[in-house]
Amino acid sequence: MAEKEKKHDKIKHAFKDKNWSEIKSEDSWAIFKVIAEFVEGFDKLAKIGPCVSIFGSARTKPDHPYYKMAEDIASKLVEHGYGVITGGGPGIMEAGNRGANKLGGKSVGLNIKLPFEQFDNIYIDPDKLINFDYFFVRKVMFVRYSQGFIVMPGGMGTLDELFEALTLIQTEKIGKFPIVLVGKAYWAGLIDWLRKVVFEKENNVSEKDFDLISIVDTAEDAVAVIEDFYSKYLLSPNF
C-alpha cells in the first residue's frame, strides 16, 4: 500500500500545476497550431518541383568526410535537376543546403525547434525555410515533397526519418521512392540485424523489403541510384 501511495503522490506531483481538464483544453487548442504548420508547409513547398531529401546528423563537423560527401551529393543532385530538402539545421543538413546553394539550386530547410543542437543554417533559400514545433508535421513535409531520400550517418532523428520513409513506402502510403544509405561500414550492423533477426529469425519483414534500400560509399553512386531509378521507372505506365 505504501508503494502505491508513493506512486500516486509522484503522479500528483507531475500534474501539480495543471489538472486534467486544462491539459485536454490545451490539446484542443493545439489543433489550430498543427493546422497552421501544415498550411504553411503545403503553401511553401507545393511549387518547389522535384527534390531529394538528405538526412543525417546535426553533430557532423564541416571537416568530417561525411559532411564533405553530403555537400558533394547535394551539388550533384542540383546538376541533375533536383532541389535539396534537409532538416534545416547544422551538420549534414547544413552540408546538403550548402552543396545545393553553391550551384544555385533549390535549397529547402525544414527546421525543428529544439532545446539543443538545432538552429537553421545560412545556406537555405530565405523563402524556403520553415520552422516547426511538431516532428510529425515536419516528417509529412519530407515525404510528401521528396522524390528520393539520401540517408547519411546520423543518430536517433536520422533513424526516425529513415524508418518513417521505409514504413510509408512498404505500406504503400506514398510512392516507391529510392532510399539510399551512404556509408556501408556505418549501416552494415543495422542491415545485418534487420536481415538476420528481424527477417530470418522473427519473420517480421519480407525479403522484398530489402529491395527498398540501396547502400553506397560515394557521392557518385548515391546520385546514380536516384538517376537510375527515374530513368527506369518514370516513364513506366505502372509508376
From TrEMBL:
GO MF annotation terms: AMP nucleosidase activity
Enzyme class: hydrolase
Record keywords, A-Z: Cytokinin biosynthesis, Hydrolase
Single GO biological process annotation from the record: cytokinin biosynthetic process
Annotated transmembrane regions: none
Keyword Metal-binding attributed: no
Reactions the enzyme catalyzes: AMP + H2O = D-ribose 5-phosphate + adenine
EC identifiers of the protein: 3.2.2.n1
Keyword Hydrolase: yes
Cellular component GO terms held in the UniProt record: cytosol
NCBIfam families, per the entry: Rossman fold protein, TIGR00730 family
Similarity field: Belongs to the LOG family.
Identification of the protein by name: Cytokinin riboside 5'-monophosphate phosphoribohydrolase
Taxon lineage: Bacteria, Pseudomonadati, Bacteroidota, Cytophagia, Cytophagales
